[in-house]
Amino acid sequence: MKIFSSSSFLLVFTICIIGCVNFVYTAPTKIGNGYSLIAIEESPDGGLIGYLKVKKKNNIYGPDIPNLQLYVKHETDNRLRIHITDADKQRWEVPYNLLPRESPPSLKQTIGKSRKGQFSLLSNQEYSGNELMFSYTSDPFSFSVKRKSNGQTLFNSSSEDPDPYSNLVFKDQYLEISTKLPKDASLYGLGENTQPHGIKIYPNDPYTLYTTDQSSINLNMDLYGSHPMYMDLRNVNGEAYAHAVLLMNSNGMDVFYRGDSLTYKVIGGVLDFYFFSGPTPLAVVDQYTEFIGRPAPMPYWSFGFHQCRWGYHNLSVIEDVIANYKKAKIPLDVIWNDDDHMDGKKTSPSILLTTLAQS
């Protein structure tokens, strides 16, 4: 008695093959081959300046930028800066007049000048500050940031073969860098976006920063602002420690947190990292806002009753709304208008504020 027809056997065989294929692990494709640190020496301002050269070019997401400039400096006792950019051409950065900060020295004007153009590497691969310590590996180039008081590694950009992320990638419209993290770290931040868990960062949730004007009613959406900063809270031998990492980059980016690593994938600009040592959450916030600017005090009128919406087409409509609030005896101190009053919304999303004096 024939149990299977030839067609049935072929179907079962195909299903088995597909099932077996699904269990075969395929390593993720790595985008770049990293860079080599060719030279590094002290800069005139007391930092470090280095010269990086791409190891092997490819054209995935465009050609690699061949030469990079590395600049590292302990700017304060609790803040370390690591800046990486194109060594030959200027790239977009958050404007220095918008957020005042030190401008890195030029690689061409500093490195090798004391040795008539002969490149060299420092004998000491560690650069220590009051609490944070920068160290590097030359080939392939990677760096780490450690806390001196307890030896904890706060950031480690190296990539091993099994890791699902690349070494440093630096192309015109694609930058990638990652850090290894302990599994017991608790991360918070990376705004603005609508996350189901609030400000706590959970593994495998999408974190996209793109500064788009869209409703916040949906989850996992990027919003108006971009704040590529996260605070890392850790329990080290029963003691609590906090630090923060800021990537000063205003371009669109995806940030992937896997639980034991975090990867930045950015579509432009530079890699300009700031590390704040804490060690308490309050100290981190104090150090961070000292750098980017303190929150402005709230004006008294802002504590009143506000109304805001999009869709008021002219001033008479707004006057009717105000009159109806008064008629219904609903308190109203401020009414906000969205971009309806602008010429073709050309300066969206600026906001016109009208304050009301009601008896």
From TrEMBL:
Pfam families found in the cross-reference section: Gal_mutarotas_2 (PF13802), Glyco_hydro_31_2nd (PF01055)
One GO BP annotation of this record: carbohydrate metabolic process
Glycoside hydrolase family 31 N-terminal domain sequence ranges: 126-250
Domain Glycoside hydrolase family 31 TIM barrel: 295-346
Gene Ontology molecular function: carbohydrate binding; hydrolase activity, hydrolyzing O-glycosyl compounds
Keywords for the protein's UniProt record, in alphabetical order: Glycosidase, Hydrolase
CDD domains reported for this sequence: GH31_N
Top-rank lineage group of the source organism: Eukaryota
InterPro entries assigned: Gal_mutarotase_sf_dom, GH, Glyco_hydro_31_N_dom, Glyco_hydro_31_TIM
Family to which the UniProt record says this protein belongs: Belongs to the glycosyl hydrolase 31 family.
Protein name: Alpha-glucosidase
Source organism: Solanum commersonii
